[in-house]
Structure formats: C-alpha cells, structure tokens
Amino acid sequence: MSEIVRFSVSVEDDLLDQFDRFCKEEKFATRSEAVRQLIRDKLTRQAWETGSHEVAGTLTLVYDHHRTQLRDQLMDLQHDNTDLIISVLHAHLAHDLCLEVIVLRGPAKRLQNIAARLRGLKGIFKGELVMASAEGG
Ligand code: NI
What we know:
Order of helices and strands: HHEHEEHE
Number of domains: 2
Structural class: alpha+beta
Number of helices: 4
Oligomer: single chain
Strand order of the largest sheet: 2-3-1-4
CATH topology of the largest domain: Alpha-Beta Plaits
Bound molecules: nickel (II) ion
C-alpha cells in the first residue's frame, strides 16, 4: 500500500470555485479524492495515448484547399503512411474550404505522430484526433 503524501497547490480563486462546483456535481467526498482521480485519469490516458498497442481512430482536418502546397503535403504524407491510413473521406464545405476525415489504424504512438504532422501543416484550420482501442477484450 502506498504512503499518503500531503502537498499544497496554488490556484486562482475563480478556478478553485469552479473546481469546488465540479466536486459537488460529481459527488466527490473531498477535494483530495477528486484530485487523485483526475491525476490517475490523466496519467492513464497519457500512457494509453503514447503506447505501442493497436488503436483505430479518425483524424478530422479542416483546411483551405487553395493552398496547393498544403494539398501536396497532405497527399504526400498520406501516401507515405499507407500502412496506417485505411480510408479518407473528403467533403467540399465551401468555395475554398475542405473537410477531410482520415481513418487510421496502428500503434497509438504512430497515430499520434502522423496526426501531429498532418495537423501541424500550414493552412490547417482545425485538426482533431479521436482514438479507440482496436484490441479485443
Ligand atoms: Ni474539397
């Protein structure tokens, strides 16, 4: 059994008010209980997101298709990662705006990496990766 350690945290008063409302709504017995759970959730999630286990996911991108360089970069990155990319859906949203949903499958950390590279291209307005476990059980 781990030893319990006390530590103090400095926080803005309005943030603490919000946190106390959160604790009340979520029925946490104490602030410590809430903080413990939030830390555990975050660490578990971080370990899951950067691990080597198999995940599936979608990367949604919204971008300006008048930027020909961006279009080429998007295409090149996708062609260089065909082992990760299962499918792509493209919708023309407006005269110069495109939406692309890229379906991916592979090790979590590789998905994070390709998503970060695609999302980071100049001219991308929005990029969001959603991942789910692709392993049974
Ligand atoms: Ni388009």
